[in-house]
Amino acid sequence: MQAWQRAVAHVAARVAAAGGGPPLPADTAVVVHLHPDRVVAATGLPVLAQLARDGRYRSQFETGTSAGGLTAHPGGDRWRWESELFGGAYDHAPAAQRPVYGALSPAPRFGSCHLRLRPDVLDRVTLAFPDSAHGPEALGTAAAAPAVPAARETGRFDALDDYVEAHVHGQLLVERDVEAVVLDPCFRDSPVHTAAEEIRTTAGAALEWTAGCALDVAELARRPECVSYRGAQVVRVAQELAAALTADGVLDAEVVGRAVAVGRWDAQRLNQVWHCVARFGSPPVA
User: Fold this and answer.
1) Which of 105, 5, 111, 3 is nearest to 60 (CA)?
2) Which of 75, 115, 174, 229 supports an S-S bond with 32, CB 3.0-4.6 Å?
3) In whole angstroms, what is the distance from residue 4 CA to residue 237 CA?
4) pTM, whole model, 2 decimals?
């Protein structure tokens, strides 16, 4: 039995021991969010270009990049969470065998763009609610998914954290598993768009567009709920990068991505700037 099969079986046994749950609907779509323009440390390529070249989605254990904490290494928080969640199935497995993280609904906290996966992946998916970083209270598989009703019943999480975490085991292969690449329109006619077109033509995945998300930095600084969301220091970083990188003060995923590339600001602060955009932004005015 391969590591991923042991991991899925371990979660299934835990769910059964806890009383089981309803199955996922057959048309459930798992989405995997990403910042498509972030550079993969090991190769120097942007994430989506790397995906187009490899035909395989790499986990944080391989890329060294993350929209959350950088703890995917032996003994790190991500390593320990996975060891507990999957019964040690991946403790000694190569990085390439580690699961890919997604969600059962859009989770823009982790990126402005996403991959929508084909229904066939559900047999290789496990679930957790809340996020594994917060100590899941409910787990699940496609056959028994108590994590889903648990998520619907709480309502105690912020809008960016109110999702069911999905773990895609057995690798995520673009041609086999990806139904669509869904981009924010701020990346239209950019290298990100080019990489998505390559995936469309070589792997048969559709290319789709969201409505987009943008936020005027003046509004971010003016609204108390925005300032308190990630703190005044994050708002100051947002103001600095808006002044340095935009002509109109409007922040979107492409602007935040350029700020990451500049290297002037702390990466975690920039993640938090994106959280503010994703939480309080709206589709840009045409």
Assistant:
1) 111
2) 115
3) 41
4) 0.92
Domain membership of residue 60 as a residue range? 3-209
Same domain, 144 and 187: yes
- The two structure tokens encoding residue 44: 């120097």
Q: Are residues 103 and 242 in the same domain?
A: no
d(CA 92, CA 95): 9
Q: At 176, is the secondary structure helix, strand, or coil? A: helix
Q: Which of 209, 232, 256 is the last residue of a domain?
A: 209
Here the tokens at position 12 are: 């299934």
Rounded Cα distance, 139 and 148, in Å: 9
Residue-wise pLDDT tens digits, 52-67: 999 999 887 776 655 4
Q: Is residue 87 part of a domain?
A: yes
Task: Please report, for residues 161, 162, 219, 267, the alpha-carbon distance to residue 38 in angstroms, rounded to integers and kept in the order given.
Answer: 22, 24, 26, 11
- Cβ contact 57:100 at 8 Å: yes
